[in-house]
Specification:
alpha+beta, five-stranded antiparallel β-sheet, three-stranded antiparallel β-sheet
Amino acid sequence: MNVIPDAFIERMKELHGKQGVAWSKALPALITDCANRFGFTPEDPFSNLSYNFVLRAKRSDGKQVVLKSSFMKDELFREVSVLRAYKGRGAINVLDQDEILGVALLEAAVPGTPLSTIEDDTRATEIFCEVFSRLHVPAPIGSQYPSLKQHFVAIERYRERFSEVNIAAPLPASWVENAEECLAYLISTTSESFLLHGDLHHENILRQFEDQWVVIDPKGIIGDIHFDTIQYLLNYEDRGGDCEQVLRRRIAIMADRLSLDPRRIAMWGVARGVLEACWTLEDGGTDWQKGIQITERFAKCLA
């Protein structure tokens, strides 16, 4: 495998400019070095490349593996450290790594079909709960993972940005205030902090063999375990009913199977929707209403 898809090179240019292009064009040599060092034969890259280059490969014993390389080396090794912390709890195994090169060799999920292929939403949510129930570990002492407060800092930046200029703040003030109140309450009342996946949704839960599921691509955040339900709740939101029905059903299943507080889940959703809107504005987008719609939908679950 010595051809890097043009679309990926263009994506790296968008994200990282000339340095991203240079990094992506150097990947064939890096892959050759890694193949010799780690003992694998390169195959094809995954089709859904976005922020990282992810390559299928096979070891001499026939075992399927995945080589993951990232321009953002620190983020990749935060991911690796979370996977190692989750070892034996339902995460894909890390086989080897090199922080200087910015690569990680991972066990491949086989067949690797995502949870999204389970179209029965109740069954998919039950599988999510099975995975969730064994995954998390208490927050490591002295860890360098960001906190949930840091994760939501874009809301603080939004406040600062529009308090300093003489233009109207675009987001509905009442929802921003509501999100800030929810966030302050949730953080102050978190009795135990966990090492969270941070992006636990359908596409990051893969089938391993016939009856197992494993997680991939953790972000690594420290905080309230209820927050790790949110990304799943934002995906395939109208599968099996309208958005409000699906959200209420999923939260009810999670509360029952995981002994979670449904109101805390809903409050995190309120805050997450406003965060989404703030991220959209920071990225220069104009469709911030989608984030506010998320907030409104979760707020109905608090009524």
